[in-house]
Specification:
By secondary structure, this protein is mainly β. It contains no helices and eleven strands.
Length: 115
């Protein structure tokens, strides 16, 4: 399983950040695969943002729930993170992740929020 994040590297405050994860090697509808977005801000630990299940259900970190949504395009085998009203505190490396018995990770993408 391989994952690759894509999206803008620079976003202005108050805008919406959208990042897409393109998956190869399995379908995002495969049973028991859960598709996550996780980020790491400078000097901080990993922060789980949310997950989309193989059936399409979504679950979010309560601290980010009001600003976060995850959607998917099964035809393209992609899932997308949307984070609204970004601030400089949302500057981080963003990772997509597949969780099954093991974890698969994308390489990560740096996002900077700055005017």
């Amino acid at each position: 399983v391989q994952l690759q994040e894509s999206g803008p590297g620079l976003v202005k405050p108050s805008q919406t950040l959208s990042l897409t994860c393109t998956v190869s090697g399995t379908s995002i509808t495969t049973n028991n695969y859960y598709w996550n977005w996780i980020r790491q801000a400078p000097g901080k630990g990993l922060e789980w943002m949310g997950v989309i299940a193989p059936g399409g259900s979504t679950y979010y970190n309560p601290s980010l729930q009001s600003r976060t949504s995850i959607s998917r395009d099964t035809a393209k085998n992609q899932f997308t993170l949307h984070l609204t009203s970004v601030t400089p505190e949302d500057t981080a490396v963003y990772y997509c992740n597949a969780n099954v018995v093991v974890n698969y990770w994308g390489p990560g993408t740096q996002v900077t929020v700055s005017s």
